[in-house]
Amino acid sequence: MMTSSLWLAMSGPAALLAASLLPAIKPDLSHQAVNRMAAVASGVTGAAAFATAIGVATSGALHTPALAISGIGFGLYLDSVSATMFCLVSFIGAIVLRYSFTYMDGDPGQIRFIRLMCLTLAAVLTLAISGNLLQFTLAWSATSLALHRLLVFYAERPAAVIAARKKFLASRLGDLFLVAAMLLLYAAFGSLDYESMFSAAQAMRGQGAIPLGVQIAAVLMVFAGLLKSAQFPVHGWLIEVMETPTPVSALLHAGIINAGGFLVLRFTDVISLSLTSMDLLAVIGGFTALFGSVVMLTQTSIKVSLAWSTIAQMGFMMMECGLGAFAAALLHIVAHSLYKAHAFLSSGSVIDIARASWTPSPGGKPHPFRLIFSIAGVFALGAVLLLGLIHLVANGIDERPNAYVVVRTLALAAVVAAAYFGLQLVAEQMFAGALPKTEALRGPLGIAIVSLIVLSFATVTFLQGMVPKHATEPRWQALYVHVANGFYVNTITNRLVLHYWPGPAPTSVPVRLPIVLREHP
Questions:
Q1: The whole model's pTM is what?
Q2: Of 57, 221, 43, 65, which is closest to residue 131 (Cα–Cα)?
Q3: Helices (DSSP H) in 400-468: which residue ranges?
């Protein structure tokens, strides 16, 4: 693929943008015609993404000459990272759109919904293939604004309104952080073009002396990414967006929520120059992963449980970035997106999902099996993987052991470990040219962070084995209530938002009480 032909990659976002705008120009179009246009646009996007991936695979990283003035303008930059995200979003977008045609059939707002979905996808795809930080920032904001309209698609639902407001506030704060980082990086590098920025950042890495402005910009980018990825304590909006149509949840959890992670991965050359930014990713991401995972286990609603799972998975992904396992984080994004899109689009199959989330043990104790699929190949994350497998095996060897279950569980643990580390090796090779290598242990503070991560996950693993044995005790039942309600962090956030942004209050949610299961004698 010639560099000039990369402009064909814009045919995907352009087709989706046209599918979004044309119904406004011709309001007499039927919903069948709008659906056909959206389907054709998603097909064009898929073809463009496939061609892009082939070009990057055969020729390496490619970029267009920037249409810029003083280093500020428009261009495309495609390497293994952006090509992967381009293909992923195109694939998931096509599936979600196709699902939407049936799901929204007969809804009075069907045409408006399809238009908003196409507009949102166009913004996300432009974000993935941007070659300039200004272009990235504009696409970043456009994605958030388009998503906001989808979150309040049913504006008469108070819960949807309060969730959208919290998301809006977090996103605008993230926008401010990103714009401030952009200004600092332009002052440091004299250009916002990726090729120039990344080359200058790599040169700084070799010199050892990193300007203060670049380090501050790295921290600001990290905060922007954390806000976009619903990290603690601004995670609450993600568990309250269930009032939107299911396709929105699927697109949000499988695609748009990854924008924060993509920001970190796209600018790893800059972010990894600051040890403070890496430590922030590891600490906040690790805590969010633990917090989300524990709360997820207490939820009785399928969609709410999936939302907490997304919060935890995004925390894992940020933690991986903070530990320097960038290839693992990108692999995590791909695996999580595919899984979560399927989970939301099939969320009506309650029995199948519930069965998939329980252990094969006859005792039937639930466990966070999904946790073991998101671990990197560095020491700390390898230890967490081991803890997850130990918990899996322990559940297979419970108070009523069965030879078949034990053997199957051990075999499954071995297969998971082999598959994971095998995929890690492939990912390291595939993204070696696009992602820098950094050390996981960075002095005393880095060692302390890694130790804290391992100790925290070990503690949670221990508690998972202890709680079922003491489930009838009042103190554990009280703890269950607090955990099920996320320690009321989201309740406090709701009150603050409603106080400073008055409007319809969300429907009150009763406090979740523990359910104690007892076997019949």
A1: 0.83
A2: 65
A3: 403-430, 443-466
H/E stretch holding 476 reads helix 474-484
Please name every residue paired with 132 in a beta bridge, in sequence order, or none if there are none. 193
DSSP bridge pairs for 193 = 132
User: Two tokens at 40?
Assistant: 């054709």
Q: How crowded is residue 514: how many other Cβ atoms within 10 Å of its Cβ?
A: 16
Q: How far is CA 243 from CA 105, 109, 132, 154, 303, in A?
A: 18, 15, 36, 8, 11
| Distance of alpha carbon 298 from alpha carbon 484, whole angstroms | 5
Distances, alpha carbon 18 to alpha carbons 6, 34, 35, 101, in Å: 20, 11, 13, 18
| Angstrom distance (rounded) from CA 126 to CA 140 | 9
For residue 69, the SS3 value is: strand
Give residue 291's identity as a one-letter amino acid code.
Answer: F
Give the CA count within 13 Å in the CB-facing half-sphere of 495: 4
Give the tokens for residue 442: 């960075």
Amino acid at 68: A
Per-block mean pLDDT, blocks of 10 residues, the chain (521 long)? 69 94 88 93 93 87 78 85 94 93 90 95 95 94 94 85 89 96 95 90 82 95 95 89 84 89 94 92 91 85 85 90 88 86 70 44 36 37 54 56 67 71 78 73 68 74 68 80 86 82 54 43 39
Distance CA 37, CA 15 (A): 9
Contacts of 26 (CB under 8 A, 6+ apart): none
**What does the DSSP assignment read for 18-36?**
HHHHHHHH-TT--HHHHHH
Please give the single-letter amino acid code of residue 47: A
Residue with tokens 């709008």: 34
CA distance 268 to 222: 10
